[in-house]
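Duplicate of earlier report; Mannitol-1-phosphate 5-dehydrogenase input re-posted below.
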Amino acid sequence: MTRLTRVAAGLGSAPPVRIVHLGLGAFHRSHQAWFTARAGDDWGIAAFTGRSPAAAVPLAEQNGLFTLVERGPDGDSAEIIGSIARAHDGRDLEALAAAIAAPTTAIVTLTITEAGYLLGPDGRLDGSDDAVIADRAALRAATRDPVRAPRPSTALGRLAMALEARRRAGAGPIAVVPCDNLPGNGRVVREALLGLASDAPELRAYIEAEVSMVSTSVDRITPAATDDDHALAERLTGFVDHAPVVAEPFHDWVLAGEFPAGRPAWERAGARFVDDIEPFENRKLWMLNGAHTILASVGPARGHETVASAMADATVRGLVERFWDEASRHLAPELEADNYRDALMARFLNPRIEHRLAQIAQGAGIKVRARILPVLQRELAAGRDASGCLAALAAWADAEGQGIDSSRLFARVSEDFTPVVERVDALRRRR
Ligand code: CS2
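Output:
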């Protein structure tokens, strides 16, 4: 069988790079790369790996091409996606700086995971983190002597270093588009970059004046592809593909912010550009991601390995529904929480999507802060007992196998979190 390449697939040459991506993984490919391909303009992506440098190898060998297997409730269909023009090892800082400093580059997208934003419990850049301290010093050194400066180790440190190269090159304004599940991700990335550049005044001034931070809410369930999926991609396309991606048909992308150097017509693929993103973020982060974290906390102990299997268990589902009842009360009425909920139920129960709970459980501590705590906070403020949120927290603490570290978890919720912790502990003892 033929290996997937641009020549073999008859796709012509790669589109010119105008987007740089950090965090080349399955979700980037099922979401931003797919939207960019669908938009149909000549926008190519230079994608850099995050924590898994090996991910660049098969893609580079396939000229950036990969098969997207769309897995609906009744069957699979396959499409070859050509928007990734180049795949790079993310540790190649020279290539990253050159790509971001190119005047033809208009956008940097990010999928660096929630933990990649280096936030402390108060939701701001964690200045006590060793990696933050080291990257701050590296950026200070880079503004004096870029050649000899130490190399930053975090994704945002690398991005800041590359923005410094763009500033020096006089390449003009650019948009940074974070695509991770964090509320206000545009504001978060802005504060984190400014914090990392706190000892690099010219870089700070450039970020303030010329880097537009776009907030986004992203959605597409993308389970890890299995060996069977590799074989399936080959059967469906006739090409050997060492990096196929599987995703549900549903896809959503809501964005708020400016693109000073232009952007693809992502709306052609269904993206929405809005002035106020918060209602969309709340709905997605609480209803979908909050439920996911509950499923990943309770499911394994009850013998479930996937979202569909956990959701089909009445006990687990009951916990999710209680949390949904509480979250729904705080959603904007025009976003039709009931319809969204019904649609989510169908997406979660799709038995053909093998979305593993272990995949979702990664980094759960940080996820709980964005997914459960805002609902807890609102329920308590409204004078209700927030029992659904507390049950979710108790399940999460059980899954972690430890007590709640209240000073880290609740710093943003309330001054006096003792009653909350006591109630969570009481729930855990009762089980
Ligand atoms: C999941 C998300 O792994 C997780 O934490 O909740 O990746 C989820 O599948 C996506 O946000 C769906 O859009």
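The chain has a mean pLDDT of 94.

Merging into the original ticket.
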